[in-house]
UniProtKB/TrEMBL annotation:
Keywords, comma-separated and alphabetical: Coiled coil, Signal
PROSITE patterns, A to Z: ICA (PS51688)
Coiled-coil regions listed in the entry: 208-242
Protein name, UniProt field: Endosialidase-like protein
Record-linked InterPro entries: S74_ICA, WH-like_DNA-bd_sf
Domain of life: Bacteria
Amino acid sequence: MKKLILTVLPCLFFASLYAQIKVVTDGSLEVNTYGTVHVSQTITTGDASGFDFNTASTIPGFLFEQDRSESSGFYCDGDIVAIYSPGDRDRLLRMYDSDAGMVEKWYLDGNGNAYTISDERSKKNITDIQNSLSLLITLKAKKYNYIGNDKEKYGKAEENKFDSSQKQYYGFLAQDVEKVFPNVVSEDEDGNKFVCYTQLIPVIIEGVQEQQETIDQQQEEIDLLKAQVEDLATKLSALISAK
């Protein structure tokens, strides 16, 4: 009886396994539609577990593809991460919030334009931005170079094709922005600060509108003064003529 159980159990296991995973004639691995592949931890980046692909091959990177006729998928190697698609729809890349009932939060279209959800129904505590111009003029724009990566520390023996330390950039210092617009600055677990530049766009637009209102008011005053000067000039001319 014991031998029978030991014989039947492996058969059931492999029968169940074959029903979910199989190798097709071209050598590809096929997984059942609702199957799940679990990979044990073999490498670690920070606190995240993962695994290495293609370590014995000279071909860099790895990819996941949907199909082979008109493929779309994910590719990465030691230098780049790429997501590619035929772009047949207006949304090339989409991001959802699963905790909010799979609500779409952001997408990238086929031309590389990014869209963020901005529907009024997704917002609350809506108020107008005030005094933007007075806040904006306190910001000091800077030009700078980024500090390059430590090649020895990160195992980069070869020279980088793109070295950000050699290119000049324009922007703001997060510490300066935080003093004026703290809500557009975030901080990671290591204390590094990040600026969401897109959140400054509405502030800039409001500042331009405020400035235009001031210009319009000044123009009205100028027009009024010009009319008064012309009226005085006419009266003065009439007085001179009367003499």
